[in-house]
Amino acid sequence: MSDSLFISELFSSIQGEGMLAGRRQIFVRLMECNLDCRYCDTEFKKSENGQLESKPGSGMLIHFPQPTSLHTVSAIIEDWQTQLPGAHHSVSFTGGEPLLHADALAGWFPEIRKSLPIHLETNGTLHTAIRYVKDQVDFISMDMKLPSTAGSAGQSWELHARFLQEAYGGNLSVKVVVGESTPASEIRQVCDLIAAVDDSVPLFLQPLTMPGGSIGITAAHLLHLQEIASSRLSDVRVIPQMHKLLGAL
């Protein structure tokens, strides 16, 4: 197990997606990903430099060397907790794909969890890796990939099914990015996978955000997809990327 990880960004902001949308979190964005989604706007290649918010919530990022140790990250979290007592709900580990580093995170999470709950954002394709950290994670946000929006990265139905089975019981929710080209058949497939585990697992339909900031799906089509999902699952919600609407990190 490595004590250090390559971190792309470490900052404080509002969670804009999924179950904890609207909550303020400390975000730890890890480098590297096993997928290449068409809509991804995140630089996840490994680099010797990461970006650290100079003051929590300032939006001002400074470079800091990589890899970063658990001790350094824990110290930053504790300092920000002191600066802004009660402001942060949890620490969100995102990416890239955090579960590529599950062996290291299995050692990190218990220490960080002493300060704040752990929120894991994952593409839900690494079903064996979730076993290493599931017991140390308070919230699992699974970003299920659709072929219509993610492109070739969305050909992962079997992997998603296995991940759902492994992650179930860990305060799990599912998010899918939907666009105007998203067919009803994909939403039915998503619902089938979720219902095979538990039809009460929350599903979030996230409208595709285009490069210029516009929404890549009409309200009529979005509502149609929501109607299909709601006929099969008990908790279906539509949430756009709130942090982008706010202009936040």
Number of helices: 8
Strand runs, count:
12
Largest sheet: 10 strands, mixed
Instruction: Give the end-to-end Cα distance, rounded to a whole number of Å.
Output: 30 Å
Rg (C-alpha, Å): 18 Å
Topology:
Blueprint: E1 4-5, E2 7-14, E3 24-30, E4 49-53, E5 61-65, E6 68-69, H1 70-83, E7 90-94, H2 102-112, E8 118-122, H3 130-133, E9 139-144, H4 147-150, H5 157-167, E10 172-178, H6 184-195, E11 203-207, H7 219-230, E12 236-238, H8 242-246
Parallel strand pairs: 2-4, 3-7, 7-8, 8-9, 9-10, 10-11, 11-12
Antiparallel strand pairs: 1-6, 2-3, 4-5
Helix pairs in contact: 5-6, 6-7
Protein model, in words:
The protein has 249 residues and is α/β, with parallel strands linked by helices. The chain has one domain (4-246): Alpha-Beta Barrel (TIM Barrel), CATH 3.20.20. Helix content is 29%, strand content 24%. It is built from 8 helices and 12 strands. The strands form 2 sheets. It has a 10-stranded mixed beta sheet. The chain has a two-stranded antiparallel ribbon with strand order 1-6. Strand 4 and strand 5 (61-65) form a beta hairpin. Helix 6 runs parallel beside helix 7 (219-230). The mean pLDDT is 93.
What are the main properties of this structure?
globular, 249 residues, TIM Barrel, two-stranded antiparallel ribbon, 12 strands, alpha/beta, 29% helix
Please summarize what this structure is:
This protein is globular. The chain has helices at residues 70-83, 102-112, 130-133, 147-150, 157-167, 184-195, 219-230, 242-246, and strands at 4-5, 7-14, 24-30, 49-53, 61-65, 68-69, 90-94, 118-122, 139-144, 172-178, 203-207, 236-238. It has 249 residues and is an alpha/beta fold.
